[in-house]
Design a protein that fits this description.
Distance between the termini: 33 Å
InterPro entries: NarM
Helix content: 40-55%
Number of domains: 2
Radius of gyration: 16 Å
Shape: globular
Pfam families: Nitr_red_assoc
Protein name: Nitrate reductase associated protein
Structural class: mainly alpha
Largest sheet: 2 strands, antiparallel
C-alpha cells in the first residue's frame, strides 16, 4: 500500500464478546498487522499479556516509521514468547481500499441472504469498516459476525 490512512483505534460491537479480554485479535489490530505485512498467529496472540495486546491496538501504525516500529514490536513480542518471528504476508490484496465492492463480500451477502451492498454504500464506509467486511468474508473467519457487521454499519437490519 502506498498511501496509509490514519485509522483511529476502534472496537466494533460485533467484537464485544471478546474485546474485554482480548482473547481474539480485534479488527483494529488485524488492520495494523496487514499494514505492516506481519502474519500473526492466534496461538502467538494468546501468549501475549493483556497490556501487550492493548498496546498493539493503541499503537499508531500509519506513517512509514510507525509501521516499522509496529512490525518490530510484534516481532519482539513473538520472539519473547516463542523464540521465533512471524512470517510476512506475501500477497497482500487490500480489497478494502478499492472503490467497488469486492467479489468475496458480494458472495458472503448472498450466502447470508443479506441485501446487496451498493458501490455508494461501500464508498461511504470508512476504511476500517471495509477492511472488517473483507476479512469477515474470507474463509477462516467466524461467519456469524458478517451479518452483525452489516447491521452495525447500517447496511442491513437483519440477515
Amino acid at each position: 500500500m502506498n498511501t496509509i490512512t490514519t485509522i483511529e483505534t476502534r472496537y466494533f460491537a460485533f467484537e464485544r464478546d471478546f474485546v474485554d479480554s482480548l482473547r481474539c485479535i480485534p479488527m483494529i489490530v488485524r488492520y495494523k498487522l496487514d499494514t505492516c505485512r506481519v502474519k500473526l498467529q492466534l496461538s502467538d496472540w494468546a501468549k501475549f499479556n493483556f497490556d501487550e495486546k492493548d498496546l498493539l491496538a493503541e499503537m499508531p501504525c500509519h506513517a512509514p516509521d510507525e509501521v516499522e516500529m509496529y512490525a518490530d514490536y510484534v516481532n519482539e513480542l513473538v520472539w519473547k514468547y516463542t523464540s521465533t518471528v512471524p512470517s510476512l504476508l506475501q500477497n497482500l490484496d487490500p480489497a478494502w481500499v478499492r472503490m467497488h465492492v469486492p467479489a468475496e463480500v458480494h458472495e458472503r451477502t448472498h450466502e447470508w441472504n443479506c441485501p446487496v451492498i451498493s458501490a455508494t454504500q461501500w464508498t461511504q464506509l470508512n476504511e476500517l469498516e471495509r477492511f472488517a467486511l473483507v476479512k469477515l468474508s474470507r474463509s477462516g473467519h467466524e461467519g456469524r459476525n458478517f451479518p452483525r457487521a452489516l447491521a452495525e454499519f447500517g447496511l442491513a437490519t437483519a440477515c
